[in-house]
Amino acid sequence: MTVTTAVPATNTPATNTPATNTPTPASPAPAAPGPAFTVAAGEPAQRVLDEAGPGARVELAEGVHRGALWIRHPGVTLTGAGPGRTVLVPGEGPGEDAGPDVPRLHDAGPEVVSGVTVHGDGVADVRVEGLTVRGFSGAGVYAHSAARVTVHDVTAEDNAVWGVYLRESTGCRITSCRASGSQYAGAALSFCPLSEHLVEGNDLHGNAFGLFVDNSSGARVLRNACHGNAIGIMLLNQVYEGEPPGGVTDCLVAGNDLHGNDLAAGAEPDGLGAAGPPISGVGLALIGTHRVAVVDNHIHGNHPTGESVMGAGFVLGSSKDWGGDDVLDTYALWNRVHGNTPLDYQLGADLGRQCFAANTAGAGDPPEVQGWRR
Predict the structure, then answer these.
(1) CA-based R_g, the chain, Å
(2) CA distances from residue 374 to 24, 131, 187, 221 in whole angstroms, order as listed
(3) Which residues form the Carbohydrate-binding/sugar hydrolysis domain (predicted)?
(4) Which of 45, 82, 125, 189 stands 20 to 30 A from 309 (CA)?
(5) Is the pLDDT of residue 11 over 50?
(6) CA of 113: how far to CAs of 22, 142, 145, in Å?
């Protein structure tokens, strides 16, 4: 293990930002930069994270690192030599756990372990980047009750429940990641309140959901490729017993390529998407959402291979039966929706409360809608 001294941050003048109508809680100032550590494969990375403290940069050297990691200090960067070069896998011995103070991962028992967990009092400004996280019984990367967590250039492979799962957190960023082989979503924002979230440039395949925006608001979902899932992208407003208040509002879904989503989820008790209804062959679904703009997406070649409660490449629907709401104030512009079966679009919504313009599609329900042309 080697240690280098971090260079102090350069002071920059304060800038004025416009006021908004949405109050945001005060957050602690970013931690001062700390030392940088390089941890070789086989060395105790968790001990380094614990002892390095706020603001540290912990570099996992090339090789296979064993054992789950827990980031509990603000301002920490955990980085590797690059996906496929630095690989984090479960420990070989018994007794590995996520720590007694980490909230249980949703849709999983207390025994599951996530690869990298971000959680703790005042944890903010954490960055996880440049590594592969593989084979954990929980999520690849899991953050809970944190602020400004960035997951960048991470490959999450064959983690049993979620790929990258950020929950009840603000200012989340998931960028340039790849996630596959998860029972639920490759990437997910869950119960994240209205703030500036960004999910951009990810490749998400072989999951129940490519991307799941679950009762989270303010997300910009940009230029992602979602393919080979049961559903490419789903935004869902639904009330769950014992969960925080939800809702999905004020999101932008733009420039995404959603194709070839043909897996079947929700059909087997312990299978893909086991907690949800059967879904297969869907590109994009907005269920119970408010004020979502859907712009310049390519939704094509999505075909169900099993039972599905949705029957089109692009779906608008109500979640009132599950404690949510009707889908309202959708703005769908310049989307190309073609070659999906059984339909290209299915608009289960009050069309007077939506705005459609310059979209192209084949067969849909209803057959003729202003703003959609063949």
Answers:
(1) 21
(2) 44, 44, 32, 26
(3) 90-232
(4) 189
(5) no
(6) 35, 10, 18
